[in-house]
Amino acid sequence: MFRPSCSTVLRRWKVHGTARRIFTDTEVVRDELRSILRETAQPVAVVTSFMDPATQQPTEHPSRFHGATLSSFSSISMDPHPLVAFSLRIPSRMATSLTSAHTSTGLYSHMVINILSEHQAPTAQRFSRADLYPEPFVSLPYSLTEEGLPILDGAVGAMSCRLVAASWPLHNLESLKSGGNEDASEWKGEGVASELFIAQVIRVERMPASGSGVRPLLYHRRGYVTTSPSQDTTPLAVLR
């Protein structure tokens, strides 16, 4: 008797009034999903926060800030609350820093999300490779929010955000169903695990200047690109 492994998903699909079992291997789904998403362009952002002292590593120029490049950033709501979401690999210093900020009652804003512009591919690389750039803020121009968090110069826009809750461990679906990560188990499997962060935008720190023509930095087919006008001159349909 065939028994699906834990890496196999069992589904039923109706074809011409009959039920057929389809066993889909999770590894196959993951590879095919990567192929689809590789053909779509994703906005590139850098999240900046205060460094958790417990995760700070000895460097020549110690910084109280930390930053990480996001490839999964998305706006998920405007009404009644402006909300954004992103995920971070765990374990990571940024995930630890944001968790520490969330538990601190003295911080109104926990982070700044900087939407990078087309000329900031080096900045994206700088904040994605801690092994090559252990001091990413050195010689990088930025200003500070009212809470003292970094706003990167040259970004398309920037927003101060506050976590609405603790992060959700994406490797533990049972924890997601229960509505929290208080009892979340530590990831001990193969591959990379992530945590989901949902934050409320409490203040827009920077907007593109009118008529500036600034374009966003996008990640597409494993490289950095930007936008260009479509060659199709067919008028777009009005969404209703």
What does this structure look like?
This protein is of the alpha+beta class. The chain is built from four helices and 15 strands. It has helices at 26-38, 93-102, 121-126, 173-178, and strands at residues 8-15, 18-25, 42-43, 45-50, 65-70, 74-77, 83-90, 111-115, 142-144, 150-152, 157-163, 168-169, 193-206, 218-220, 223-225. The longest helix is centred in the N-terminal third of the chain and has 13 residues, at 26-38. The radius of gyration is 21 Å and the shape is globular. It starts with 7 loop residues before the first strand and ends in a 15-residue tail after the last strand. The model has no long low-confidence stretch (mean pLDDT 80).
Features:
240 residues; alpha+beta; eight-stranded antiparallel sheet; three-stranded antiparallel sheet; 15 strands
Sequence of secondary-structure elements: EEHEEEEEHEHEEEEHEEE
Number of helices: 4
Portion in strands: 25-35%
Indicate the overall shape.
globular
Number of strands: 15
Fold topology:
Blueprint: E1 8-15, E2 18-25, H1 26-38, E3 42-43, E4 45-50, E5 65-70, E6 74-77, E7 83-90, H2 93-102, E8 111-115, H3 121-126, E9 142-144, E10 150-152, E11 157-163, E12 168-169, H4 173-178, E13 193-206, E14 218-220, E15 223-225
Antiparallel strand pairs: 1-2, 3-14, 4-5, 4-8, 6-7, 7-13, 8-11, 9-10, 11-13, 12-13, 14-15
